[in-house]
Design a protein that fits this description.
The chain is mainly beta. Helices cover about 0% and strands about 50% of the residues.
């Protein structure tokens, strides 16, 4: 079965950086478009797509709010997905989810940014 396990979240000060990782298994990772989503800390907030990367890394897309601070990448040899976030801001706080093309999601990793 599809398994997606995120890691790398934590408590970070504004201006810092983080790299989130996602270990994928149970499907042909190298053939799938992969994405990162985020759910904000407010009650009732839905998941918003942060970034997406094509199967061979030839195309990437980012949400407008990422402001050039986010970089999505992948390692198809290791079935791993990454999200590098630079110059973290308090509004980046939330739970980040790895996703297989918006259909399957991991349990998430929490990021908290203090001002």
């Amino acid at each position: 079965q599809v398994q997606l396990v995120e890691s790398g979240g934590g408590l970070v000060q504004s201006g810092g950086s983080l790299t989130l990782s996602c270990a994928a298994s149970g499907f042909a990772f190298s053939m799938e478009t992969m994405s990162w989503y985020r759910r904000g800390p407010g009650q009732g907030q839905g998941r918003v797509r942060v970034a997406e990367i094509s199967s061979r890394s030839s195309a990437t897309a980012y949400g407008d709010f990422t402001e050039g601070r986010f970089t999505i990448s992948r390692d198809n040899d290791k079935d791993m997905l990454f999200l590098r976030i630079r110059n973290l801001k308090p509004q980046d706080t939330g739970t980040y989810y790895c996703s297989r093309a918006g259909r399957d999601f991991g349990p998430g990793t929490q990021v908290a940014v203090t001002s």
